[in-house]
Amino acid sequence: MLLGYLATAPYPWYRIVYYADATFNARFSAIEFTRSAVLSSRTEELMIGLEKIWHNFRLCLIGVAGLSFAAGQGAAETLFTYPDFSSTAGLTLVGNASTASTSDGTVLRVTPATGGQSGAAYSTTAVPLGSGNSFSTAFQFRFTNPGGIDPADGIVFVIGTSTTGLGTGGFGIGYAGVSGNSIGIEFDTYNNGGSDGNSSNEVGIDTNGGLQDSNLAKAYGVGTCDFGGSPATYKSAGCMSNGNLWTVNMSYNGSALTVSLSDPAEGTSFTALNAVPLNLASILGQNTAFVGFSSGTGAGWENHDIVNWTFSNSATPTPTPEPGTVVLVGGGLLVVALVRKRRTVRTA
Ligand SMILES: [Ca+2]
Ligand SMILES: [Ca+2]
Question: Which residues pair with 147 in a beta bridge?
């Protein structure tokens, strides 16, 4: 934003313009030259000299702003985004995982809707996590075409040290028995009894290939999502197997994990894990990890499709360039352009 004009007198052929962004963080000044007065040739020479000095100074400012922006990006960045999975470059698919063409586009089908499957997909290289192993991620899933005894068994979002960790299918959700150190955030759609909180619709934290189901939460408080009932309960709002396009947002700041889900049929998001204390650096023992999904089916099944996915190594997703920075660079370019234009007009 333009804050105003400062010093002009006693030299009316220039003015210092003072800019700032909306939060007054990126203030800077610019010199604008005015040529309304009839100028002497000596003043004209002086102005040209000043314009050159200012032009070079502005280029330096723009350079500094660019470097500052780049440095900020280095501290926290989106490491990858898959708007769909028409390309799986950068991913390693394991077991029964594949891609599939659906009404959502090409999706990552971690396991297909048939019995006894186990699949996973991980980043091919270990990704650098942020400070304290912080990260954030967002993805959308859609579980379709359930069959067998009930919709089953769900997916697990995995952050681990194993390149291609694949566990057992069925109730193992492709995560049980994964080697190495890891955490798994499970989205479990089949009730295997007490360890699942007697729920077929629960979110929980698993560690190092074990199904601890810690901090278990029933999505939207809905505990039963199966073939029972008329209509079948799995079709209800809040059931992860209901075939809707669900959105998951996950954020870890180095000490606490927050996971929220959103079913469009519910209209609001549901916070399943709210700042749950977690020491990911201690669990992993390293600051890099292979990240991805596992899934399984057993006597029940469904398509477990990941529709899109983005991953960042900061607790909050990568910000878009700050408006102030854009104003700073844009304003500098504008000043340079104006100076050049005026010079062009004068020499034409
Ligand atoms: Ca289960
Ligand atoms: Ca479970």
Answer: 301
Question: How far apart are the CA of 315 and the centre of ligand 1, in A?
Answer: 29
What ligand is nearest to the CA atom of residue 204?
Answer: 2
Q: How far is ligand 1, taken at its centre, from the CA of residue 65, in Å?
A: 52
Q: What angle do CA 5, 11, 17 make, to 5 degrees?
A: 20
Q: Greater confidence, 191 or 323?
A: 191
Between the CA of 35 and the centroid of ligand 1 the distance, in Å, is 77
User: What tokens were used for 307?
Assistant: 């529709």
Which ligand neighbours the alpha carbon of 197 most closely?
Answer: 2
Model pLDDT, residue 44: 58
Pick the ligand that lies closest to the CA of residue 200.
1
Domain ranges of the chain: 2-74+322-347, 79-312
Q: Which ligand is nearest to the CA of 297?
A: 1
Which numbered ligand comes closest to the C-alpha of 196? 2
Planar angle of CA 167, 170, 175, nearest 5 degrees: 25
Q: How confident is the model at residue 320 (pLDDT cuts 50, 70, 90)?
A: very low
Helical ranges in the chain per DSSP H: 41-75, 280-284, 323-347
- Output the CA 154–ligand 2 centroid distance in Å: 9
Beta-sheet strand order (sheet of 28-33)? 2-5, 14-19, 28-33
pLDDT over 90, % of the chain: 67
Smallest-distance ligand from the CA of 173? 1
| The predicted structure's pLDDT at residue 18 | 37
What's the pTM? Answer: 0.72
Q: How far is the CA of 153 from the centre of ligand 1 (A)?
A: 6
**Percentage of residues in the chain with pLDDT exceeding 70?**
69
Mention the CATH class of domain 79-312.
Answer: mainly beta
Find residue 294's DSSP bridge partners: 120, 156
